[in-house]
Amino acid sequence: MRVALFVSCVNDALYPRTGRAVVRLLERLGHEVVFEPEQTCCGQTHWTTGYHREAEGLAVRFAELFSRYETVVTPSASCAATVRTVHPRLTGGAPPPVHELTEFLVDVLGVTDVGACFPHRVAYHPTCHSLRVSRLGDRPLRLLRAVRGLELADLPEAEECCGFGGAFALKNADTSVAMAADKVRHVRGTGADVVCAVDDSCLAHIGGMLSRLRSGVRAVHLAQILAATGAEGEER
Amino acid sequence: MTPFTRPVKFAEAAGEALAGPRRDPRPAAERQRRRAEAVAELPGWEDLRRAGEELKDRALLDLGTLLERLEDAVVRAGGKVHWARDAAEAARVVTRLVQAGGREEVVELASAVTREIGLAGALAAAGITVRGAELSPRERLLSVETVVSGAHFLVAETGTVVALEPEEDGRMCLVLPETLITVAGIEQVVPRLRDLEVLLQLLARSSGERMSPHTAMWAGTTAGDGPREFHLVLLDNGRTAVLKDEVGRAALRCIGCSACLDVCPVYGRVGARPYGDLPGPIGAILTPQLRGIEPAYEASLPFASTLCGACADVCPVRIDIPGVLVHLRAKVVESRRRRPVPTPELALMRAAAWTMSDRRRYERALARLNRWGGLLARGGGVRGLSGLSGLSILSGRWTDARDLPVLPRRTFRDWWRSRR
């Protein structure tokens, strides 16, 4: 299958390893990945912060770029949610066919075992947009359970927000940090050495605190785990 | 206008609350658990929510007619109806009614609406002693002469007032006094008595009960039984303006169950105070609409959320709280656009959109970020960034407790190009 990757601006600039992991994973599964070079941002931050005129321009641009692809995959559940639930209101048309990565794997390709090997104890944080907007359900967990060598840790209060919330992390920094502190405490309590999720922006927040606390726990995008095949470990 | 002293912004009040002792999360967690159980055992919960949503929406669209019908019904049943445009007028009406009866003491059954109009303060200022039902020993209750209450629902068809009191004492207060004064918001009216079938189930289950333990319903007065005088004070206080907003008016569906408070991770940590009169997610969408978004405090409320969506999932009348929050954020932003000098945030967001709407501009920005990455890698890593003056205002709020991501040597698209 020919798959267009919408990598998201956050991953393009800050977490290219997530994009690389998606490419390796999909190619390993026998699919052709294309990258639309004109792509930039879906406008999520502008929308959620209230800059709807600016978000509209970005949504229109996104639709122009991606409507000609049959299948678009993104490793960001919140960007996927923005395209599907917000873009139609901004553009007045149907959104391009964007799938969040785990949805694409489980629903479109029908695979849960992607042939990954990742010998670590892993806690999975279901991000709010993946849970309550994209409604990914247990798809990420089914994919993780099929990874060889991976020991899935049970994260307490998993469904509670990590406190990132885009601009919230800056506008209400104290509350945001208090929420992250609880999330990090729960993660550390599991004894996991890796915490994963399907959005690098939430992981920047959780991982930023894990790093500040010198906890030794790494925040890793789910795509990196699914792309890993064991011997060489995942790409840092 | 109001006795409540507002903080400058939500974030400041939240910061103060967080600096205090940590709130015990267990009671809210227990209520959440009970709510989940009460909801799970009822087949068709989602249908019931939809029914509640539609019922309240229709009532709100037909509010003028319903309120006239309500007034007629209350008067027919021997009660009196008073209309109050704002909080001050409502408090004046109640004070006047108490004084007209020659009373110096009232029992206030505190509710969201009596708090909204600052009733306790207004009565105290008029020299009237205000006591809460829970403070009064039973003997006092038997001699109480005037009670002021809130309500959960008003039924237009019959003039019935429905009040759910968590304690037996509260319910007694509704039947014992000589004079009963009820203050309610105009949005609390529903067309028919049978609509309560849906609403009382939604309310009880959302509070973690199968049935509310004390549900009082009355219409006007009955000779020889209960209060001799009944007054219904109907409060607008900004509600009519909220109704004009097609998105924002969903907030007026609220039936006051408090489920959104119990699941809110922000409210759970900062408590009620930073929200002002009406706490939690519902307060964050109602208060700025009722009071206007121009003042800095009211403008900060729609931003007091991560948009995690937990509230929308439990709301019994399906208020899309995150959706309304985003809608109100846009209103705040629009009002700032009208200022002669753009706020730094507006300038930043415009610049970001301008950069993102063109590939070359975007790639140049990425290249600058990469150069920074290289610079920082040499200059001692991510903590060095807070020393960069231009970014320190924003990054400081981040880096107080969180490391910034290590900037990669090259972007995704650079890697992609190198691969071809």
Salient structural properties:
heterodimer, A: 236 residues, alpha/beta, four-stranded parallel sheet, 8 strands, globular, B: 420 residues, six-stranded parallel sheet, four-stranded mixed sheet, 21 helices, 10 strands
Provide structural commentary:
- The complex is a heterodimer of chains A (236) and B (420).
- Chain A has helices at 9-13, 16-28, 44-49, 52-66, 77-91, 101-108, 128-133, 139-145, 168-171, 173-189, 200-212, 222-227; strands at 2-5, 32-35, 72-74, 98-100, 121-124, 151-153, 194-197, 218-221.
- By secondary structure, chain A is α/β, with parallel strands linked by helices.
- In chain A, helix 4 crosses helix 5 and helix 10 packs across helix 11 (200-212).
- The relative contact order of chain A is 0.16.
- Chain B is elongated, with a radius of gyration of 26 Å.
- Chain B is of the alpha/beta class.
- Residues 380-390 of chain B have low confidence and may be disordered.
- Classes of the chains: A alpha/beta (236), B alpha/beta (420).
- Chains A and B meet through helix 1, helix 2, helix 3, helix 4 and helix 7 of A and helix 1, helix 13, helix 16, helix 17 and helix 18 of B.
In summary, what is this structure?
Chain A is of the alpha/beta class and 236 residues long. Chain A has 12 helices and 8 strands.
The main β sheet of chain B shows up as:
6 strands, parallel
Low-confidence stretches of chain A: none
Q: What class do helices, strands and sheet pairing of chain B give?
A: alpha/beta
Number of E-state strands of chain A: 8
Number of helices of chain B: 21
Please count the beta strands of chain B (DSSP E, at least 2 residues each): 10
Query: What helical percentage do the residues of chain B reach?
Result: 40-55%
The interface involving the most residues is between: A-B, 65 and 60 residues
SSE class of chain A: alpha/beta
Shape of chain B: elongated
Q: What pattern of helices and strands is seen along the backbone of chain A?
A: EHHEHHEHEHEHHEHHEHEH
- Indicate the proportion of strand residues of chain A: 5-15%
